[in-house]
Amino acid sequence: METMRVVEPKESRGPYALTVDVQDGIAIVTFDLPGESVNKIGRAVKDEFLQLADRLERDKDIRGAVLISGKPDVFIAGADIEEFLTLETAAQAERLSRDGQMLIDSVARMRIPLVAAIHGACLGGGLELALACTYRVATDHPKTVLALPEVQLGIIPGAGGTQRLPRKIGLRAALDMILTGKNVRAKKAYQMGLVEELVHPAILRQIAVQRAKELGNGKRPQTRKERGFMDTLLDGNPVGRSVVLRKAREETLKKTKGHYPAPLAALDAVAAGLSGRRAHGYREESRLFGEMAATDVSRQLIYLFFATTALKKDSGVGVPAEPREVKKLGILGAGFMGSGIASVAVQQGTVVRMKDADHARVGKGLAAVRSVLKERLGKRQITRQQMDDTMLLLGGTVDYSGFASVDLVIEAVFEDLATKHEVLREVEPLLKPEAIFATNTSTIPIGRIAEAAARPERVLGMHFFSPVHKMPLIEVITTPGTSPEAVATAVAYGKRLGKTVIVVNDGPGFYVNRILFPYINEAGRLLEQGAAVDAIDAAMVAFGFPVGPMTLLDEVGMDVGAKAAAVMHQAFGDRFAPAGAIDRLVAAGRYGRKAKQGFYLYDEAGKKGAVDPEVYAVAGAAAERTEIPAAEIQQRCVFAMLNEAARCLQDGIIRSERDGDVGAVFGIGFPPFRGGPFRYIDSIGAATLVGQLEELNSRFPGRFEPAERLLQAARR
Ligand code: NAI
Q1: 228 or 18: whose pLDDT is higher?
Q2: For ligand 1, is residue 356 a contact (CB within 6 Å)?
Q3: Tens digit of each residue's pLDDT (9 = 90 or more) over 650-667
Q4: What would the DSSP string read from start to end of 473-519?
Q5: CA distance 293 to 97
Q6: Residue 35 CB-half CA count within 13 A
């Protein structure tokens, strides 16, 4: 076996990303980007690829090639986005896309067959490259996923993806991937015809080499399996295709509400490829790629992508501290949140003991975990065997048996200080001295809870959001007494659960709920003033929130919301005074969805209907609905939130604007295309914002006084 370099290393450049081993006339190209955890395609790598292709072409002894990754769980993660950020104009981005197309085209045109051996993530430019290969073998492994995630960054596939994918797997399947950016698992990719073969990871290389040999000896690659009737009907002819494209456009508009231009641009690029000459499709793809790259939306989405990537590498503490491994977790309270936390923990392989007051409640908690797993089984994301194995990690108890060996306790009992103190006092003496006690309280300051602890340095907050298995954020809350090691452990474990973690300082409502309440309160005031429930919700959805504040209250529970609002009011005074309307609804038992009675009507099955016409009278709102313009509703609710976010930063609750943006987007659903509260403040301009806040404050004294930090920024 011989190892060759693509080009001789020069002093100025580090080690190379591509190395080649030649075996019996087959070149095995290993992609292993030096100094990085994943393979990305940047300028330097492109040059290497071009030189390699040229060299393989000229070597007459080589009959075929295999492209494989040297990284453990990544094939190719896509283009180098950092490089992408250096582009300033649409024209520059367009040129980048043309270059990418050319590179991949030169691979597609190679004399010798090229086999992509795919294990791990095969994303964006990685998938575009794989599509240009002659044959694709993928591992049947959970880490192997294929996707064109570009629209999630506000751009579109720019290296031929919008052209090659529909030809490979058919129009409808391709649109499903391109317009959502979603991950496709290996098995599904095989069924769709996206890869030709599935193998066990242990034999990936061997099979890929064998296929390259066979293809090199003139065997024709096996083509895509027969298409089904619907595929032929809809994908196979111009009329069917135009129906599919039109429907896709309608659905995309409905989903994006006009806030995200990239999926529509991707659709145009796909359509161009189907309608005209080949070159036309590619040109349109590049042109639209350039156009999208220059949008503000893509700038914000890429900012958020980098912010979350940076958080993944952030230990959460300023000083060096080693996180302890959490092998076993104890959960106090098997209710809604406790069981939710248990469901994500067992899926990550943690042994979990869940404690509640009696057997019935423990049983209910265990059943709740099971139903989360069942949902995954139903979607074929796990097998029955995996579900059973996972459930074996979970045990329930009504005493604290098994807690002596837990590394971390997460407390999710009732939101009541006395109860929290009681369980802390009970459990602490039973724990290992180094075990950590994390509370999932949503409003009680961690410092207050820690007062009952013998080892307050091991007490902190781990604030999950509901539903736990879906919401991507955790706030880890520290007190001045929390040890760095405890923080590092909670942060590392939160990440292991697959969540984005921000570390915040202790204070009522921490960060996420603190900025949420001024927004909710303002919505309540608008209601009292005569705005219609659905008008308030519609205005905020139009702004870009996933649901409006009234629907949110119905979902969370009006009683839960009102209780927390009262805590916040007590802590911060008038600025947080809740609207009396909500308390009146609670008094009338209108708790929202769970009571089948809230702002909206719910049927027996709990399905949401129209606004309940009686709600205005019960809430004591103005008798007549008054038309309040959507722009005013948006301004009042959102500005209250922005102003509080600025206060959280000036008070040291959050460490950075970055954390504030990520927390609001992932915790509340602040519109991602606006980048988060701080990016949105930037886009309005601090001086403009302060002016408008002052105007609002003169109309509604005390509620909109600009935060000191905004005033300072406005003066600059
Ligand atoms: P829940 O009422 O569903 O569950 C609480 C559970 O704690 C019940 O099963 C109860 O029997 C159990 N419990 C009470 N006293 C206990 C004791 N001494 N020992 C053991 N178990 C005991 O409440 P939920 O919604 O799960 O809330 C739990 C905590 O999570 C609260 O602090 C809440 O503020 C917080 N939280 C709630 C969120 C939500 O959306 N519901 C979101 C984030 C935090």
Answers
A1: 18
A2: yes
A3: 999 999 999 999 999 999
A4: EEEEEE-TTS-HHHHHHHHHHHHHTT-EEEEEE-STTTTHHHHHHHH
A5: 10
A6: 4
Average pLDDT over residues 387-394: 97
Instruction: State residue 42's pLDDT score.
Output: 92
Q: pLDDT (tens digit, 9 = 90+) per residue, 136-181?
A: 999 999 999 999 999 999 999 999 999 999 999 999 999 999 999 9
Neighbours of 648 (CB within 10 A): 25
- Best residue among 339, 400, 410, 414 to mutate for probing ligand 1's pocket (most ligand atoms within 8 Å of CB) is 414
Q: In CATH, what number is assigned to the domain containing residue 368?
A: 3.40.50.720
Note if the pTM is more than 0.85.
yes
Residue 181 within any structural domain of the chain:
yes
**CA-411 nearest atom, ligand 1:** 29
Q: Which of 128, 291, 475, 644 is catalytic?
A: 475
Give residue 86's pLDDT: 87
pLDDT of residue 11: 40
Beta-carbon count within 10 A of 210 CB: 15
Residue 227 confidence class, pLDDT cut points 50, 70, 90: low
357 lines ligand 1 (CB under 6 A): yes
The C-alpha angle 461, 465, 470, rounded to 5 degrees, equals 135
Number of domains in the chain: 3
Position in ligand 1 atom list of the atom nearest CA 556? 40
End position of a domain, from candidates 270, 294, 318: 294
- Give Cα 575 distance to the centre of its chain: 32
Nearest residue by C-alpha to atom 39 in ligand 1: 466
pLDDT at 8: 45
Looking at residue 597, the DSSP 8-state letter turns out to be: B
Q: Give strand pairing partners of 332.
A: 355, 411
Asked if 485 and 514 touch (Cβ cutoff 8 Å), the reply is no
Distance 263 CA to ligand 1 centre (A): 41
Same domain as 528, residue 489: no
Which residues share a beta bridge with 353? 330, 395
pLDDT of residue 236: 72
The 8 Å CB, 24+ separation contacts for 596-602 are: 598/553, 598/554, 598/558, 599/533, 599/550, 599/551, 599/553, 599/554, 600/533, 600/550, 600/551, 600/554
Specify the residue for token string 């209780």.
563
Nearest CA to ligand 1 atom 1: 335
Residue 529 and residue 648 in one domain: yes
Does the pLDDT of residue 41 top 70, yes or no?
A: yes
Domain ranges, residue 365: 328-507
339 domain-assigned: yes
Average pLDDT, the chain: 94
Predicted local confidence at residue 10, as pLDDT: 41
Task: Give the residue from 447, 455, 451, 576 showing the smallest Cα distance to 506.
Answer: 447
Please tell me if the CB atom of residue 466 comes closer than 6 angstroms to any atom of ligand 1. Answer: yes
Binding site membership of 334 for ligand 1 (Cβ less than 6 Å): yes
Domain membership flag for residue 288: yes
Q: Does residue 519 belong to any structural domain of this protein?
A: yes
Residue 561 neighbours by CB under 8 Å, 6+ apart = 520, 553, 582
Name every residue whose Cβ is closer than 8 Å to that of residue 552 and which is 6 or more positions away in sequence. 520
Contact 113, 93 (CB under 8 A): no
Q: What average pLDDT score do residues 341-359 get?
A: 97
pLDDT digits 0-9 by tens, 71-101: 999 999 999 998 888 888 999 999 999 999 9
How many contiguous H segments (helices) and E segments (strands) does the chain have? 30, 23
